[in-house]
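Marked as duplicate of an earlier ticket. Keeping the data here for the record.
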Amino acid sequence: MNPLQRALIEKLGHDYGFEHVLASDAGCVVLASARHPANARVTVPPSGGYLLYLLADTPALLPEMNRTFGQESTAAGFVAKSEARLAAFLRRAAGLARALPSQAAQDYEASVATQLAQLPTGVKGTEVERLVRQRVGQQKFREAMLDYWGGACAVTGLALPEVLRASHAKPWSECESDAERLDVFNGFLLVANLDALFDRFLISFDDGGHILVSSRVGHVEQTRLGLVAGMTLRWLTDPHRNYLALHRARCGDLKPIA
């Protein structure tokens, strides 16, 4: 690895979620971040391009990376044939590392502590604290969902953050812990109309990710709401399916779109 390659890798890390350089020499560059626990080790193989190896305590990180970049994955890591692909790997790895359990919950606790420290003493256990926790938690959940779904709707792929909502499958008020409330698998990033329907248990998804509609939504309403046959989640994992089973049980009579 020559100095130009090292400098380029360090810049890509800084620009795409790994702003700290832990090590940099002729053999490899090791990147890290203050915003998530993952480290990235980048080397330049003799065949050219770049080889990315991820180090993380989050078990779901590598399976999610393999799902996205499976054709570019080897036992040694992820093979990037260009700087653009290395940037894509780093950006996705950083987004996942920020979103996946339990990083979102840790960020939530830190943010709550900071905001409560700015309030008058004596708010612990009051309605004020509850509202602070709910507001911060919903913000952190949305940020995590945007990271996990790459800033695009889980169904339509629409990448317009202003109209995207972070929808819980198991409602916030019914979750048994903050970790459950902030679990990115407990819901989906949805465009506003789908979010409203999902939140009111008028649509759900089967274990294959195909949309299901409540019998309370007639054909005319389906058309006006933009619900069409073939609408499917862009991907679905087993942790999603666990929460979806709870959600479908609340929806009552569901059927595919004809």
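See parent ticket for discussion. The chain is about 40% helix and 20% strand.
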